[in-house]
């Protein structure tokens, strides 16, 4: 493999709880410190249809977790604006997943984003018929990353540029 083949793009969404708690900057700095580059980013208030495509058409959430969980996630995501971004770097998908930690905040290791910024269990959220506030979405794998990026961004929204530290991070 050539070094270019290791360069990946991945989608990250700062969920409404991250935006409303004011922790986006702290978390974004962690991605930049590890050497990932922001190549697309914007704040928006997505529609139910946009989330349906993201969570069901791409993520197959209803078949994986059921309609009740899907509906609670949609309700949670519609609670406020989100910041949607594409990060690029060496093995970016795996690096971001590792940094983000387990999807269930209670199970996320301290030092991961979810471990440091959230703690609610699935059981607690389910008992209140709510979605689990877990700060951030990150693409699960290369296939999902490609689909998710195409869903949220056009090619003209994604920038190709160099940053000074690339000689150390690529």
Secondary structure topology:
Elements: E1 7-14, H1 16-21, H2 24-33, E2 37-44, H3 48-58, H4 61-65, H5 67-77, E3 82-90, H6 92-100, H7 113-117, H8 122-127, E4 136-138, H9 142-152, H10 166-169
Antiparallel strand pairs: 1-3, 1-4, 2-3
Structural commentary:
The protein is an alpha+beta fold and 170 residues long. The protein has a single domain (3-154), classed as Alpha-Beta Plaits (2-Layer Sandwich). It has ten helices and four strands; from the N terminus they run βααβαααβαααβαα. The chain has a four-stranded antiparallel beta sheet, sandwiched between helices. α3 (48-58) runs antiparallel to α9. The longest helix is centred in the first third of the chain and has 11 residues, at 48-58. The model has no long low-confidence stretch (mean pLDDT 90).
Task: Point out poorly predicted stretches.
Answer: none
What is the gyration radius calculated from CA atoms? 16 Å
CATH architecture tag: 2-Layer Sandwich
Strand-residue proportion: 15-25%
Give a count of the beta strands, DSSP E runs of length 2 or more. Answer: 4
Question: What's the SSE pattern?
Answer: EHHEHHHEHHHEHH
Mean pLDDT level? 90
Structural class: alpha+beta
Q: Regarding CATH, which class?
A: Alpha Beta
* Strand arrangement, major sheet: 2-3-1-4
For the record, the count of structural domains works out to 1
How many angstroms separate the termini?
14 Å
Number of helices: 10
The CATH topology is given as: Alpha-Beta Plaits
What global shape is seen? globular
Largest sheet: 4 strands, antiparallel
Name given to the CATH homologous superfamily: Nucleoside diphosphate kinase-like domain
**Helical percentage:** 40-55%
